[in-house]
Amino acid sequence: MAAPISTFLSRCALVVALALTVAGCESTAPLGASVPDASASAAATAAAANPVVPEFRVGAGDKLKVNVFGEQTLTGEYVVDPSGSLAIPLAGSIPVAGATVREVESRIAAKLRGSFIKNPKVAVEIASFRPFYVIGEVTKPGEYPYRAGLNLLSAVAVAGGYTYRANTSRVMITRAGSAQEVAMDTRAGPIIVNPGDVVRITERFF
Question: Measuring CA to CA, which residue among 62, 96, 66, 94 is closest to residue 79?
Answer without folding.
Answer: 62
